From TrEMBL:
The keyword Signal belongs to this UniProt entry's keyword annotation: yes
Signal sequence, start to end: 1-28
Keyword terms: Signal
Entry keyword annotation includes Signal: yes
Name the UniProt record assigns to this protein: Secreted protein
Organism: Motilibacter peucedani
Domain of life: Bacteria
Length: 196
């Protein structure tokens, strides 16, 4: 990875960490019967040293905190994250690996839905690669236990004149999302800020 993308990634992470508050300071919502949602992530194709992080974006809601809620290493294609149920709306996922692959010029956000797809639809690798726009912010849940099935795929790319492998990650089965769509980089969703 060149110095410029690495610096951008470091700046993004630092900015989010500085902005992080107590995850429990959520906006007012109807309180579910439980306080924590266990998110079971099944992910195929993730490079060595893969981790999944659940990030909370509060920009659309105007709440007072944002940041990393939980991070888990992927072992045997699985990771388990625990997040406050009340803040699952506008939550997004970041994927990182030992080689610091990126999605174009941003960190790797998981595409939960692409334009033109419907909730429950299965998305193939060719469909993901062709997608021009997608959504990374989850509509949230009141359930105590949910399962996501993600697929990760390295692909050759040219960024700022340099050839390198980029990483796209998407939900194999489309889930309900919140917030506007974002332009993809060959199906990958670059994250350069915490906005939904």
């Amino acid at each position: 990875m060149s110095a410029r993308p690495r610096a951008a990634a470091a700046a993004f992470t630092a900015a989010l960490l500085l902005a992080s508050g107590t995850p429990g300071t959520a906006e007012a919502s109807t309180a579910p019967a439980h306080r924590t949602t266990t998110s079971r992530v099944h992910i195929t194709g993730c490079p060595a040293g893969c981790t999944v992080t659940a990030w909370r974006s509060t920009i659309p809601t105007g709440a007072s905190s944002e940041g990393a809620l939980d991070t888990a290493s992927v072992r045997h294609g699985r990771a388990v994250l625990h997040v406050p149920t009340s803040v699952t709306r506008y939550l997004f996922f970041l994927v990182a690996d030992r080689a610091d692959h990126q999605a174009g010029e941003g960190l790797v956000g998981v595409a939960l839905r692409y334009d033109g797809t419907r909730v429950g639809q299965v998305v193939s690798a060719p469909q993901a690669a062709r997608a021009a726009a997608g959504y990374d912010c989850w509509a949230g849940t009141t359930l105590s236990d949910v399962t996501f099935r993600f697929r990760a795929q390295l692909f050759p790319s040219v960024v700022n004149g340099f050839r390198r492998d980029s990483l796209r990650v998407w939900s194999v089965r489309v889930v309900r999302t919140a917030g506007p769509s974002a332009t993809t980089f060959h199906g990958a969703l670059p994250k350069q800020d915490a906005a939904c």
